[in-house]
Design a protein that fits this description.
Layout (H helix, E strand, L loop, with lengths): L5 H27 L7 H4 L7 H12 L3 H15 L4 H22 L4 H26 L1
Helix pairs in contact: 1-3, 1-5, 4-6, 5-6
Amino acid sequence: MTAYLLYPMFLMVLLTFTVGFLTVRARFASVKDGDVKAKYYRLMSGQDVPEFITKTTRNFNNQFEIPTLFYVVCTLYISFGIESFLALVCAWLFVILRIVHSYIHLTYNHVMHRMLTFFAAFICVMVLWVNLLVQKI
């Protein structure tokens, strides 16, 4: 059954919730510690903020960019009833790479490491889409 793609999709959802939780926690802590005024969060402007606030916010936003294409393509595999080992491998690899990307972004934030994991995950989604088209032709 193509429902096997639900597992990597669910893990991607968990990553999104985890990063979202970290983002909210960082924001509350920044206000509580007096690093950021609560008013800043109305428009996300008006003062300089600690690096971790920027990193968590940007990483959370990243979870709604390329991953959206991942959710759509996996849903199409399931809807069309297409079973593909290549799709399964690419889906899991995508999620693993996104976890690594988030870890890099939220910790030591080495730009080249982040870029490489982002690009590899991007390729995985592209392969998922091309494979889907090939399977449907």
